[in-house]
Amino acid sequence: MFRFFKMPVDDINPSVRQVTRGQSPSMPASQSKATNGEVLLDSLVALSKINGIGVVQHGARLSVIGELLVSMLTHLPASTRVAIAGSFRDRISVLTSLSDDNGLPSQYHSALQTEVNRYLNALR
Asked: Is 83 in the same domain as 119?
């Protein structure tokens, strides 16, 4: 259904490609260290771009899903929304207890609480 983070490096930056030892010319050790550092830096830049694009794509998907859920919730009858809110609170309580056991950072808990409140407000 979705392509999760499987994006070839060539799609991001066509100038970044893998090079084998046979393709590399021999050079003095000092120049080799500098070149290795440059290759590592280029690899880090390519990886950062790939990860950044993946995070942005994931965020876009989550935004669309969130807006769809809010739209759907607002069209439900009031009695159904009350029942969903109770069930949602119970499930979030379980989720929160599991995440507390794993020592997740405060940013996670803050984002979770923000999203929970968003949907609870939509259910009102």
From this structure: yes
pLDDT at 12 over 80: no
What is the count of structural domains for the chain?
A: 2
- SS3 annotation, the chain: CCCCCCCCHHHHCCCCCCCCHHHCCCCCHHHHHHHHHHHHHHHHHHHHHHHHHHHHHHHHHHHHHHHHHHHHHHCCCHHHHHHHHHHHHHHHHHHHHHHHHCCCCHHHHHHHHHHHHHHHHHHC
* pLDDT, tens only, 94-112: 988 887 777 788 888 899 9
